[in-house]
Design brief:
127 residues; alpha+beta; Bacillus phage protein; three-stranded antiparallel β-sheet; globular
């Protein structure tokens, strides 16, 4: 998808639009001495969460993207994550989803990007 690249902004979009996080925004992060060391996307995974948490790295770490796959599987009858590697060499990863009786697929250079793009498509964020 044009304009969507792996990184913290995409992670924040997936957290909010797909995973249902609340109040996701860029916030300053301080060290133990209270000195700001960076800005990072934080939010609450549920209304009941007492404090904001760091948004998972959905677009770059497969172990953090896997809950997105599990959510897709709970909501759709078929979800598959496939390596597109074929006889011509490395191809993008493919995430296929059956939504309302129709299949769609999204491709990414990494498995995590294919998952994020398919998840965003499943909620209508991308066409």
């Amino acid at each position: 998808m044009e304009g969507l690249t792996a990184g913290r902004e995409l992670d924040a979009i997936v957290a909010e639009r797909v995973m249902g996080w609340i109040d996701v925004k860029l916030q300053p992060i301080a060290n133990a001495l209270g000195v700001k060391v960076m800005d990072e996307y934080c939010g609450k995974p549920t209304i009941a969460a007492p404090l904001p948490m760091l948004v998972p790295r959905y677009s770059t770490m497969i172990q953090e993207a896997w809950p997105v796959v599990e959510k897709l599987r709970r909501e759709h009858p078929f979800v598959a994550l496939l390596s597109g590697k074929g006889p011509q060499g490395a191809q993008p990863w493919i995430c296929k989803v059956n939504k309302e009786g129709s299949f769609f697929e999204e491709r990414g250079e990494t498995a995590t990007m294919a998952v994020c793009l398919a998840a965003l498509k499943s909620v209508g964020f991308i066409a």
